[in-house]
Amino acid sequence: MQKQYIWHPNTQMKEWSNFRIIKSGNGMWLIDSNGNKLLDGVASMWCNVWGHSKKELINTIIKQSKDLQHSSLFNLTHEPAEKLAKKLAQISPHMYKVFYSDNGSTSIEVALKIALQYWQNVGKSKNKFISLENGYHGDTFGSMSVGYMDEFFSKFKTNLFSVIQIPVPIKSKLPTKYTFDEYQKHCLNMLESKLANDKKIAAMIMESGAQIAGGVNIYPDKFQQKISKLCRKYEVLLIVDEVATGFGRLGSLVEYQSQKSKPDIVCYGKMLTGGYMTLAATLTTKKIYDSFNEKFYNMKHFFHGHTFTGNPIATSVAYKNLELYGKYNLIKKIENKSKLLKKRYDEITSLDMVKDVRTKGLVMGIELQIDRTKKSLNKIIFEEAANNNIYLRTLGNVVMLVPPLAISKNELTFLIDKTIKTIQNVSKNLKHNHNKF
Ligand SMILES: *Cc1c(COP(=O)(O)O)cnc(C)c1O
Q1: Phi/psi at 189 (5° precision)
Q2: What is the mean pLDDT of residues 15-22?
Q3: Buried-state track 340-363, b at ≥16 Cβ within 10 A, e below 16
Q4: Ligand 1 pocket: which of 100, 101, 103, 105 to mutate (most atoms <8 Å of CB)?
Q5: pTM for this predicted structure
Q6: To bridge 352 with a disulfide, which of 97, 131, 201, 427 should be the other Cys (CB 3.0-4.6 Å)?
Q7: What is the H or E stretch that residue 176 is in?
Q8: In angstroms, what is the span from residue 166 Cα to ligand 1's centroid?
Q9: Which residue from 103, 268, 270, 271 has its CB within 8 A of the most atoms of ligand 1, so it is best to mutate?
């Protein structure tokens, strides 16, 4: 075995002596160096839309990279970034300006900084953030602070800034003295009392539609809309994080629109480029933007910018990606595939070891009941899944199904069948051979 130099993300390296080498991708399939095929069940960390090697996207990258590979948005502009910004503003209700960054976490940092500076621009001293428990917003310090989850970030807790957190209704984690409806009301009441009593709150931040990294926790009907109304009532900005849920994951192009909520700032990432290049965007309303729009010596311009902001190759492929949504009527087609997941719900729920199943659009979280094993559950599931020709990555004890949105019904059926088989085999092995893992 040759020495490997990569330190892999969120990975106990001691557990992995080697990694499967992916050589190429074709449609929904990843192909490794031995020619084995794996169905990409997590859309390459939730960002792939059309599958791999989609001709139109490749051609866009080739064409753009011949003309202009990178040029700055500092003092200059270029057509791919302009075209995409216009399109993003057009598809996003109430949004007016687009600020580019490179990944979901930075799009959150940008949103937090815009919110803080906005209140200074308009001469009010509001500098606190409020967020939902169990929410995830990225791995940088600002995003860890607002998306604080103990199991991911406890090592850094002492260095995070403090954020007010409001409980969130989760059916499988309901405190015993409440019904689900009562608990939802309780969460909203808590939020309202915080907003009403603390005039220092600058912004509320939440994932749009569902908490995905928190184990696919789908908000109850109108929950987001009610939060949106409360924020308006108490003059607190609402930031919605659509990094995971925007562009169709939950079945709608713009999730905050289908939630009938009215954010002041919205963040896009993951599926923005179809999963081909790294790019994120933070959009704001005219009201927010106008507060920055002043004479230079007033020092109200936004103090933020990244080297690769609005990269031409990334923005051109994102524009093409969004064009393809229209061309192939992608959002409409998600609904039918979503039904396929729902149809298998009972079957999956009744599996040994399965505690709870949650699904909407093209995401499913299968929560397992499992005692601690010597190996991480992620590795156990990954290996068994790979034996069954699918690529899965679990989050905590939740098996995540997050396929590329353009997956065919046959391939989705294959993914579900093999996921069931994976869970059955793991469950059998854990029972019969405690030492094996
Ligand atoms: C993945 C994710 C992020 C962070 O995006 P990165 O590109 O990994 O930095 C932020 N918010 C949500 C909801 C996410 O799922």
Answers
A1: -65, -40
A2: 93
A3: ebeebeeebeeeebbebbbbbbbb
A4: 105
A5: 0.97
A6: 427
A7: none
A8: 20
A9: 270
What residues contact residue 123 under an 8 Å CB cut-off, 6+ apart? none
Contact at 8 Å (CB) between 238 and 228?
yes
Token pair listed for 85: 């910004």
Residue 219 to residue 212: CA distance in whole angstroms: 11
Q: Is 212 in the pocket of ligand 1 (CB under 6 A)?
A: yes
pLDDT digit string, tens, across residues 199-255: 999 999 999 999 999 999 999 999 999 999 999 999 999 999 999 999 999 999 999
Query: pLDDT tens digits, residue range 154-201?
Result: 999 999 999 999 999 998 889 999 999 999 999 999 999 999 999 999
Q: Which amino acid is at 155?
A: K
CB atoms within 10 A of CB 418: 19
Asked if residues 248 and 330 have their Cβ atoms less than 8 Å apart, the reply is yes
For ligand 1, is residue 241 a contact (CB within 6 Å)?
A: yes
pLDDT at position 437, please? Answer: 54
Tell me if 137 CB under 6 Å of ligand 1.
yes
Is residue 434 scored above 70 in pLDDT? no
